Input
Amino acid sequence: MKVAIIGAGSIVFCKTLFLDIVQTPGLEATEFALMAPSRRHTPQVEAFANRVIAANDLPASVHVTTSQQDALRGADYVIATFQIGGTAAFEADIDIPLSHGVDQCIGDSLGPGGVFRALRTIPVAVKLAHDMETLCPRATLLNYVNPMAPVCWALGTTQTPFVGLCHGVQTTMDLIAGYVGVPKAEIDYICAGINHMAWFLHLAHRGVDLYPLLRQRFEQPEFYVNDKVRGEVLRNFGYFMTESSGHLSEYLPYFRKNRRGLELYCDEPEFGGETGAALKWGRAVTAKYEGRDMLADEPVTLPGRSIEYGSYIIEALETGRAFRFNGNVINSGIIANLPADCCAEGPMVADGTGLHRTVVGDLPPQCAALNLTNINVQRLATQAALTGDPEALVHACALDPLTAAVLTLDEIRAMASELLEAQRAWLPQFRGKSVRPAPIISIPADVARAPVPVDPALAIMARLGKLGAQETP
Output
């Protein structure tokens, strides 16, 4: 079996996936092709992998390449973990919107940062899928690249079988288990929605609904303080969802639009709500390991498989051992009250016959409505990425809930224009195109109004005013 990892310069994640696969029964003999456009980091991963293979007497093999075609040729599985633009693009995603008043914590899935990450990423992801159609047409693409929903939405326009994978469900289940004091393995759940905003529709322990206890816990300060944004959404909309308070605070208009909201709900450090937390973390890691081999001192003993779904899905497809997980695919009726063509996240099963979706039905209407506010942005960001239409990218930013809560339309257009100019190196589909200016129209104090039809509502009010001024006979 051959596994191609595209974006293998993502050292820690690539290491995790490699270790997961080589210690899976039946997958020990995997050939790994580690691809990145430069050899800046991949030799570190290759050297580490070879140390693990030797120390554990594994029949696996690994090689690095800068050629996507070489990595894909004959692959059975392709894992996408790349980031386009690196730190420089990420800095623009965070710093430029912040200078316009849009405060983001993570900035990789929604908001202006998520929109522009989608613009950079989608053409690369679609090209990867098209290359797979030629070089490994029977391979399955496991996508870990953010923004997950727009990337998978675009992948749905290709012929390549894919599923988008995240660890939001697994990590949130750890939290829920802690909140209710029940072992994670004993909780039955159904979770569905969209990536980074999927809802736990059912939570039960031995047939007992856990939601009354979970809601009660979030009325207690000692629980609420740990997860204030998710707690507020649970308290006001009735359901717990899959992403951290820092992330969720960006996806809705309630928490980061002014100083009061930031101080009340987003005062936890780092990914709990801190401004630019993900960018600061990335900068710190880069500074710490610049010029050093991150994996030089890593132990070569097999540590046990991580929570990431990838190795379990490959195991299921290869061996027939069924595996249940949450995946991101084109909706097509999985969730009845979300658009059929959007990317939905819901329960799936992998086995020897393939990947199988589960029909969920309707989400609670308030949960579907919150999802739709994000789906609108995802749709327009996907359209902009595929067409290179500057107006579509402005529309995506304008419909973003947080951006719309903070900026006027002319301010949004100015921000989008500045972001586009700063990121042209990674946006070839916009070559020769710019955001159309639409400055505020100046209205002189003595302007003579044009003779146009009177707005019917204004005409009615004017008529009522005249009637009210007449004396009663």
The chain is about 45% helix and 15% strand. The CA atoms of residues 90 and 280 lie 10 Å apart.
